[in-house]
Amino acid sequence: MLTYEILFVNRAEASQEKIKETAEKIQSVILRNNGEVFLSENWGKRRLAFKIKGCTDGNYYRMIFSADPLFVKELDRDVRVNEDVIRHIIVRAQKVAEKPPVKEKEEPSITQADVPQAVEPEVEKVKTTDKAEETIG
């Protein structure tokens, strides 16, 4: 099974109950098809970059799950026919880590004394002579 991420946008007029119902429906479809949901989060209401189906605002919802690649096509079709979802995208993602990654080594901090100071190159002074005086005299 591979790990995927789905982000869908519900209409702004949809109630929180309706949004939660849509998310639970998607989650139940994933679980019925031997998938596993790692993360489910509601991002809330946000302004859209451009009008989609006459809407200027939408409620964003994100899920990370694992499922069979053939099932993802079916999930895409199910979300597409949902009238409350105005836009969605399903992409393959990296598996969510259970623990935050461990740092191998901490790099030593650099102090001002460690940084070499920039040295301006010396500019050779050019001798100037007044040729007009030489030619007249």
Task: Please report the distance between the alpha carbons of the first and last residues.
Answer: 97 Å
| Average predicted local confidence, pLDDT | 76
- CATH secondary-structure class of the domain at 2-92: Alpha Beta
Helix percentage? 25-40%
Q: Give helix and strand order, one letter per element, not per position.
A: EHEEHEH
Q: Which band does the percent of strand residues land in?
A: 35-45%
Q: Compute the number of strand runs.
A: 4
Write the layout of secondary structure elements.
Elements: E1 2-11, H1 16-32, E2 36-52, E3 55-67, H2 69-80, E4 85-92, H3 131-136
Antiparallel strand pairs: 1-3, 1-4, 2-3
Care to describe what's here?
This protein has a domain at 2-92: 2-Layer Sandwich (Alpha-Beta Plaits), CATH 3.30.70.60. It is 26% helix and 35% strand. Strands 2-3-1-4 form a 4-stranded antiparallel β-sheet, with helices on one face. The longest helix has 17 residues, at 16-32. The protein has helices at residues 16-32, 69-80, 131-136; strands spanning 2-11, 36-52, 55-67, 85-92. By secondary structure, it is of the alpha+beta class.
